[in-house]
Amino acid sequence: MEQAIYNNRKNYFFSESMKFEFCGFSKTLPMHSFGPAYRKHYILHIVLDGGGSYYVKNNSYHLTAGDMFLIRPDESTFYQADKNNPWVYCWLAFSGSEAEAIVEQSAFAKERYTLHSSQINSYVDIIKSCLTLNHETIEEELALNELLYKFFRILLIDTTHSVPSLQEEFSPLVQQTIQYVERHFDEEITVQSVALALNIDRSYLSRSFSKIMHTNLKSWILSVKLNYAAYQLFMTKKSVEEIAQMVGFHSIESFSRAYKSFTGESPLQYRKRLAKKENLGIHDKEISQLLEQQQVEKRAT
């Protein structure tokens, strides 16, 4: 779950060689994730605060503030926020007949996927400008594409260095496990029940999952449940007891203990804090103020 602001353009007047698709900012909850998934566009993420992990082509990267990661079209990717210090990031998506050629002229050439940048504020300013251009007009389409080219001009001259990766196979078994948990988190699932559903040995499943995800499967299952619970606490007026039942807890006491252990707050404290729209802890005050006004979403990007 995350709080996000974004601009997603749907209609176009021109067929551009480089075309703005969408952009935004997001503050994620602990262990919020996206994927494994294939995307239609190039999407460049910039980490502003906190940390997380990015998995692509059998490599994993642990990323923190100042790092950037690129998602290429039609490649399987997965990314996840840290449990203790979840990331805040912004993103810009683009497409077009010349998109690949321009990417290959940048520091992301030769299938590089991550960089550490010295120009983070410049990229952030451009994405903030893109957010203001949210009308479906010719003038604003041209303005968005102008900002996109400016973004890449900065990227071409940016003094970057690569982020070290770990060679890890993101196995089909781990992908199946993630997908199964996200479909059945509302049930009282356990590591054993997941193993039975996937027809795999429990110990082997646990080892395989921990090796790739750097967390045990039991914690992952709990994080999926509590991320959805956080979404419900903010987005609805359902009681804590109702939400506990929705994510597979039969006892409000056990749910509250698990939630406080996971987030540092009880469910009611979390709901009250978000209702007051307290500061989100982001260094850029303008972005922080914008994100404070947003509802918690299941997934923005």
State the main characteristics.
transcription regulation; alpha+beta; single chain; DNA-binding transcription factor activity; 2 domains; 301 residues; 5-stranded antiparallel beta sheet; HTH_AraC; 8-stranded antiparallel beta sheet; 13 strands; HTH_AraC-typ_CS; Arc Repressor Mutant, subunit A
Which stretches are low in confidence, meaning pLDDT under 50 for 5 or more residues running?
278-283
Give the class from helix and strand content and strand pairing. alpha+beta
Domains, number: 2
One letter per element, helices H and strands E, the order comes to EEEEEEEEEHEHHEEHHHHHHHHE
Mean pLDDT: 83
The CATH class name of the largest domain reads Mainly Beta
β-strand number? 13
Which architecture name of the largest domain does CATH use? Answer: Sandwich
Strand content: 15-25%
Spell out the CATH superfamily of the largest domain.
Answer: Regulatory protein AraC
Q: Number of helical segments?
A: 11
Strand order of the largest sheet: 11-10-7-4-9-2-1-13
How much is the radius of gyration in Å? 20 Å
Main sheet specs:
8 strands, antiparallel
Distance between the termini: 11 Å
Secondary structure: helix percent: 40-55%
Find the CATH topology of the largest domain: Jelly Rolls
Per the principal axes of the C-alpha atoms, what is the gross shape?
globular
Protein name: AraC-type DNA-binding protein
Organism: Pilibacter termitis
GO molecular function, one term: DNA-binding transcription factor activity
Keywords: DNA-binding, Transcription, Transcription regulation
